[in-house]
Structures
1.
Amino acid sequence: MNRFEYVVISIDGDYAHLKRTDIESDELKLVARALLPPEIVEGTRLLNEWMSYSIME
């Protein structure tokens, strides 16, 4: 099972820039907001499992 942790760095219209937090990486991932939970804001921690994003507590 693939499990990835991200933090929302910025929101740009219909897209969000995510940064991996479970590994050392400076790359940002651009993801359509339609694929993310609607309540995200900058700084929200996300979990990606089985091609689905959820907010981490």
Note: The chain has no helices and five strands.
2.
Amino acid sequence: MLYCPKTGISNKRKRWEKIEQVLKEHGVLYDMVQSETADSVERLVKMMIGNGYKTIVIVGGDSALNDAVNCLMMEEKTVREGIALGVIPNGVMNDFARFWSFDEDNVEQTVGWLVKRRIRKVDLGCIRYTNAKNEKCHRYFLNCLNIGMTADIMNLRRQTRRLFGSRTLSFVSSLFVMLFHRMEYKMKLRINSTVIDRKVMTVCIGSGPGYGQTPNAVPYNGMLDVSVVYHPEMVQLIEGLWLLVAGRFLNHRSVHPFRTQEIRVDEAKKAMVGIDGRLMKTPVGPFRVDIEQEVINFLIPE
């Protein structure tokens, strides 16, 4: 078990004591390591894999899960097939856990589900790109990849969530700050037979719910859902925020949804890229995003 304390809270020990109590009540035998920083998650997951652990539970959020699946994907398939990954939500953003109905405030239910060890193979999205050193790189994601304004919002949201606590309030405050930022980016996208060559506000590519932007995506159908958002007028922008909070984001007139196995980004000038809620180094030049089907064993509810 890898405990990733939530940044910016003072009762980290109290949170772990609650989880520890529930684990003992269910008779769970476990070893626990705690991450010191976000950068230490990958190192600790590699250590657990190397020591032969067959069930790895991340007590953390989307970014910690992202680190874990990228570690697993470095292993040979035969090794990966023997390991199951689980989550007790404890992050700034827990979108992937929420998709499966894991509730951060209901540890008893979550542990009760995990001990039954019901496994489902899930898909991973993957961005394949070139970095500033002209090296070919790739990075996997469980939930979504964002290009443009939403990547900026996700970055601000992580910071404001620490201040406000509320998911909705942090998103609204982040959006308000973004009103003073760049709102459009010149992009050229190829999705199936469609070519989009124009200014775009944001793109969300989801294997999962994508923080409400790809609400119909599921991480087990071998497909990626894509939402391309053109720049709406201010009234439409407010309407779009309301639809996002209400779970009807795709109903907005500026949102253009697609379903595909691959998207090619030939151009995305000065647009930030976020992966599972965390900013990544912006790819240099064109890149593509595709899907790998049923590659991770994930512990799901009964």
Note: The longest helix spans residues 149-164.
